[in-house]
Specification:
This protein has about 240 residues and is mainly β. It has one domain. The chain is about 10% helix and about 35% strand. It is built from two helices and 13 strands; from the N terminus they run αββββββββββαβββ. It has helices at about 1-20, 190-195, and strands at about 35-45, 55-65, 75-80, 85, 90-95, 105-115, 125-135, 140-150, 160, 170-180, 200-210, 225-230, 235. It has a seven-stranded antiparallel β-sheet, with no helix packed on it. Strands 3, 4, 5, 9, 10 and 11 form a six-stranded antiparallel β-sheet that branches. A hairpin with a 2-residue loop joins strand 3 and strand 4. The longest helix is centred in the first third of the chain and has 17 residues, at about 1-20. It is elongated. The chain starts with a helix and ends in an 8-residue tail after the last strand. About 25% of the residues are buried. The model is unreliable at about 215-225 and about 230-243 (pLDDT under 50).
Length: about 240
């Protein structure tokens, strides 16, 4: 009786087994690789003959490694004061480049106190932020942005860096700056910073990818200056020529 039951069970299973290809195995689904694979940055070490400390210039550099291409990239300045966002003129600098495949964007940031170092066109009560971006195709972008000390005094604040844990499919935060003594070192993402930091001023510097909204933020005449170098002997006509 028992043998008949086993035979009946096998008779039901054999047609099902015949439909499975020999050697077929279920492979676990792989999690897609994040768009921003790696982010690192920080202060530049001074050399023995470095004039930056004497001129009160702060310098930072880093890189963003991407796993795929992008149609456009914007540079975003976000300022918060006592937990509330401050409207900063020209806070989004759009159309800084595009790339078809994976690659690395390298950046450098220099900050000068215009009250101490009155550069060309300097206004009192401002700091000048000069940013250089090296795109994956080896083209370069330079952006100058004057930020009022009334929003955040970049000559007297602490600087912290982001890593890839703060990145998303469309944004890679690079650096953030904070005034005051209470520096929350445990915060990782921009949402944590903007929701938990309620004292002092904060500036978040980020790259935003595949964004169309930033192109509508340039109705007024821009206060920043940009220049672009596409090849060693060629400067793009839509950007001003740099020395």
């Amino acid at each position: 009786m028992r043998n008949k039951s086993i035979a009946a069970l096998l008779a039901c299973l054999l047609p099902l087994l015949a439909q499975v290809p020999v050697g077929a195995q279920q492979t676990p689904s792989r999690k897609p690789e994040p768009f921003v694979r790696y982010v690192e940055g920080g202060a530049v070490d001074h050399s023995l003959d470095d004039l930056a400390p004497m001129l009160h210039i702060q310098r930072y550099k880093g890189e963003v490694v991407l796993s795929s291409g992008f149609t456009n990239v914007s540079l975003v300045f976000s300022v918060y004061k006592d937990g509330r966002k401050i409207d900063l003129p020209n806070s989004v600098i759009p159309d800084l480049g595009e790339y078809e495949t994976n690659g690395t964007i390298r950046y450098s940031v220099q900050i000068a106190d215009l009250d101490y170092l009155p550069l060309g066109g300097a206004k009192k009560g401002y700091c000048r932020v000069k940013i250089a971006l090296q795109m994956p195709d080896d083209s370069w972008e330079w952006i100058d942005q004057d930020i009022p000390k009334s929003a955040i005094d970049l000559s007297d604040c602490s600087q912290l860096s982001f890593n890839e844990r703060a990145a998303s499919d469309r944004e890679a935060p690079l650096l953030w700056f904070k005034t005051g003594r209470n520096i929350p070192l445990s915060l990782v993402t921009t949402d944590e910073i903007t929701s938990k930091v309620k004292e002092g001023s904060v500036l978040i510097l980020a790259l935003r990818f595949n964004d169309q909204t930033g192109r509508n933020n340039t109705k007024s005449k821009p206060a920043h200056k940009t220049s672009r170098l596409t090849k060693p002997a060629q400067v793009s006509a839509r950007r001003s020529r740099t020395p």
